[in-house]
């Protein structure tokens, strides 16, 4: 009888502890998401200001809390912006060594980027890093093979050459203060405080340059204020130029596959079939467009549908819960959950455990 009473008390205690634990260690919500190439996976900014990372997504590794990151307000695949305007970054230990990604320490030597102050936005693509400070100045460092920081001619990718790296943040002398930034592989872009879109670089593929007024900068770069766009809200230059206007329209220019074949235009054209867009993001062979009702449209090969053929027109795939943010093949749902669609297995969603 005593044993029964002891067991009953133990069960009651466990129930109470379980209840208390569920209240104290509630699941975190995702605030922002940054998707990178498959080996780097996805970083998720949680509601507690910590950053949790998922690497080697097809092998389902993670989550890992990135050390040294607290009070974070914005993220990219290899950078984080702290609430006091400080930028932090990290490099995988195997970078440049040829070692397999599985052997990497992805978050070795997380450190502050010196020479930056009062930063309000960050962006990166192809290891080119950009930062925007509160005065509207744009700073660049990292990979400069296309001269997007220095203004030097692009390096010939067909020849062996030493990497061109800008070690310290260097101001890019754009003509006016900026409000948004986007790094790219061959071009970079920004939106000024009046909503005009600016681009610079693109010398590797001149046909992809936009039409607009040209400004020669002190370092030799040529900045273009793009014609033919209404007030811009955001832009993604990571692969091709895509602009979201405050009217909820998506515009693009350069070379791309159109509904009737390849298109090559320096004048921005509107992406048809898209209304009330709220975000645009590019991934591996696709463009994702988030709309006001939480649905996601894709141009190209949709990562959330294994049976969906590549299409030059924006198209919804199978119905999914409403999303509130997107980055490549990752998205945040309206309940704060984060999901990523595996690049090599389209249609297979991976729910990202944000920890407790």
Primary descriptors:
356 residues; four-stranded antiparallel sheet; 29 strands
Tell me about this structure.
The strands form 7 sheets. The protein has a 5-stranded antiparallel β-sheet with strand order 13-14-15-17-16, with no helix packed on it. A 4-stranded antiparallel β-sheet has the order 1-2-3-4, with no helix packed on it. It has a 4-stranded antiparallel β-sheet with strand order 5-6-7-8, with no helix packed on it. A hairpin with a 2-residue loop joins strand 22 and strand 23. With 356 residues, the protein is mainly beta.
| Helix-strand pattern | HEEEEEEEEEEEEEEEEEEEEEEEEEEEEE
Number of helices: 1
Q: Count of DSSP E strands?
A: 29
Mean pLDDT: 82
Protein structure class: mainly beta
- Kindly provide the radius of gyration, computed on alpha-carbon positions and rounded to a whole number of angstroms: 22 Å
Distance between the termini: 39 Å
Instruction: Extract low-pLDDT stretches.
Output: 1-25
How does the overall form come out from the CA principal axes? globular
Please report which band the strand proportion falls in: under 5%, 5-15%, 15-25%, 25-35%, 35-45% or over 45%: 35-45%
For the largest beta-sheet, the strand count, sense and barrel status come to: 5 strands, antiparallel
């Amino acid at each position: 009888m005593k044993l029964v009473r002891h067991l009953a008390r133990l069960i009651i205690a466990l129930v109470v502890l379980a209840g208390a634990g569920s209240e104290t260690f509630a699941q975190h919500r995702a605030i922002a998401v940054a998707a990178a190439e498959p080996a780097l996976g996805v970083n998720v900014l949680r509601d507690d200001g910590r950053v949790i990372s998922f690497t080697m997504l097809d092998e389902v590794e993670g989550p890992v809390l990135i050390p040294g990151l607290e009070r974070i307000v914005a993220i990219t695949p290899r950078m984080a912006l702290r609430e006091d305007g400080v930028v932090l970054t990290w490099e995988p230990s195997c970078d440049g060594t040829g070692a397999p990604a599985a052997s990497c320490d992805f978050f070795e030597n997380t450190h502050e980027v010196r020479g930056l102050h009062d930063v309000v936005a960050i962006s990166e693509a192809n290891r080119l890093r950009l930062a925007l400070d509160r005065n509207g100045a744009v700073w660049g460092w990292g990979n400069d093979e296309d001269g997007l920081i220095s203004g030097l001619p692009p390096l010939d990718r067909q020849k062996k050459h030493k990497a061109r790296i800008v070690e310290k943040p260097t101001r890019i002398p754009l003509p006016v203060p900026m409000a948004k930034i986007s790094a790219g592989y061959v071009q970079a872009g920004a939106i000024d405080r009046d909503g005009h879109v600016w681009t610079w670089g693109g010398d590797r593929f001149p046909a992809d340059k936009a039409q607009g007024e040209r400004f020669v900068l002190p370092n030799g770069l040529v900045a273009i204020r793009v014609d033919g766009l209404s007030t811009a809200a955001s832009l993604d230059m990571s692969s091709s130029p895509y602009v979201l206007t405050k009217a909820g329209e998506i515009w693009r220019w350069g070379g791309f596959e159109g509904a009737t074949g390849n298109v090559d235009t320096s004048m921005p054209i509107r992406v048809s079939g898209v209304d009330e867009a709220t975000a645009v993001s590019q991934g591996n062979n696709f463009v994702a467009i988030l709309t006001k009702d939480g649905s996601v449209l894709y141009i190209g090969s949709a990562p959330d549908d294994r049976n969906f053929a590549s299409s030059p027109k924006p198209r919804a795939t199978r119905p999914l819960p409403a999303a509130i943010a997107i980055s490549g093949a990752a998205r945040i749902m309206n309940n704060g959950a984060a999901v990523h669609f595996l690049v090599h297995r389209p249609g297979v969603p991976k729910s990202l455990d944000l920890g407790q």
